[in-house]
Amino acid sequence: MDPGAELQGGAQIGPYAIVGPQVSVGPDSRVDPFAVLERNVRLGAGVRIGAHSVIGGDPQDLKYQGEETWAEVGDGTIVREYVTVNRGTAHSWKTTVGRGCLLMSYVHLGHDCRVGDGVILSNNVQLAGHVHVDDKAIIGGMSGVHQFVSIGAYAFVGGFSKVAKDVPPYVKADGNPARLYGLNSIGLQRQGFSKDAVDALKQAYRLFFRSSLNIRHAVERARVELPPLPEVQAFIAFIAESERGVLV
User: Fold this and answer.
1) Could you confirm whether 199 is annotated as catalytic?
2) What is the C-alpha R_g of the chain?
3) Is there a domain that residue 158 lies in?
4) Last residue in a domain, options 85, 114, 130
5) Which residue in the list 32, 61, 75, 112 is annotated as catalytic?
6) What tens digit of pLDDT does each residue of 41-69 get?
7) pTM of whole model > 0.85?
8) Is 129 one of the catalytic residues?
9) Contacts of 141 (CB under 8 A, 6+ apart)
């Protein structure tokens, strides 16, 4: 363990694990055998880092020139074995994983990724640099996500998907290349969304993806015609602000 590392109360470090410089391991967190916290890593409380995982490795970006950047993992997140989380670059200075996430075996997070709270990344999910995954999204195993793609809150991406455009919140996507398959209705019900919210989101989905309107006109009509619920507003804003374009 590097002398500059910090272990807070109840933190456990397994045999042969490496804890490098400027690493902070939060209270009651656990680092399993042979895991590497390379440098500039902050772990919250109750985090588990699985065996042979590497957190805080250098970004795989030829523009990176050794700047001081970070990797952060939020409270209660479970990182299973052989996961890699690279630090950020000067673009955002850090790669972040939120609270209560599950990163299954062999997941990779490229530099400057931002993963929200309660996200599940199944085995072998690969996120390129600058990917954003919002709260409670789920990505199925063996899926790859192109750099700079955003995946909205409560979205579900099926396994073996190739995701090259943004995935709006609350929807299902699947395939190679990925396309949309309707609202994630069952997932929303399980998460306690009201019937009014689900019905309004179904209206929004039909307006954007089952009509002849282009995105600009759909946004204009949605802002006038759809109920002003927070979920609907988030859905509209995500699509209106998408820089890569959204799946259809």
Assistant:
1) no
2) 19
3) no
4) 130
5) 112
6) 999 999 999 999 999 999 999 999 999 99
7) yes
8) yes
9) 104, 122, 123, 124, 125, 159, 160
Q: Which among 92, 113, 130 is the end of a domain?
A: 130
Q: Residue 152 corresponds to which tokens in the numbers above? A: 């909205």
Asked if the structure places residue 44 within a domain, the reply is yes
Residues of the chain with pLDDT > 70, as a percent, come to: 100
Report angle CA 133, 175, 115 to the nearest 5 degrees: 10
Q: Which amino acid is at 133?
A: V
Average pLDDT for 99-110: 99
Burial 208-241 (b: 16+ CB within 10 A, else e): bbeeeeeeeebbeebeeebeebebbebbbebbee
Q: Which residues contact 199 (CB under 8 A, 6 or more apart)?
A: none
Structure tokens given for 132 = 């954003």
| Distance from C-alpha of 246 to C-alpha of 208, rounded to nearest angstrom | 10
Instruction: Select which of 26, 32, 44, 111 is catalytic.
Output: 111
User: How confident is the model over 11-26, as pLDDT tens digits?
Assistant: 999 999 999 999 999 9
Out of 57, 118, 129, 187, the active site residue is: 129
Q: Is 10 in the active site? A: no
